[in-house]
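Suppose you are handed a protein chain with no further information: no name, no annotation, nothing but its sequence. What can you learn? This example shows the usual starting point.
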Amino acid sequence: MNCIEARRMVTPFIKKELSDRETEQFLNHVEHCADCMDELDIHFTVYKALDTLDSGVHHEYDFRRMLNEEIRNARRRILRRKMFRALYWLVLFLTELLLVMSIYTGYQQKRERSEKRQSQEIEAITESEETTESEAQTESKTQTESEIQTESKTRGTQAAQPEILRTKSPENKTDAPAAKEERLPETKTNGYVANEETAEPKSIEE
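A reasonable first move is to predict its three-dimensional structure. Written in structure tokens, the prediction is:
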């Protein structure tokens, strides 16, 4: 800010018509510029003197001290408003941070629940497969044992049959001649008795 701009703001400053930013810029300039400070002092003295005359109360005033007090009050007001804005933005930032953290925490919890559910499903599938495999192995083992028992019975039966045949074969050989002899009775053929062993006809009379 230059001196021309500062001198334009003297009256608005006295009447408190400047914004906080304009007031801060104006005070920063007049505190480092003696000419502008003198200009402000003159205008402030005239304004307060006229205001005192209009009120009808006549007292002795130290206008310089009053100006310094006005500048300090303006500084305090600007500082309070800055602190309020800073606090506002801090609260807003913390609120947004808490909101983001809550969203992130909810997302993490949802993700953990999803992963836990997936792991449980995988474990259930694995257990089902293991149970099915175990049942299949048990069934296969049972079937194999049944086949082995059946095969062993079949072999035992096949092994017992030759012994039975060997046991019965001598009797058959012993009984064979008797059976043969029984099958050879004398038969009559045209007045002759035929002996099947000799095949010689004999007369019935003989």
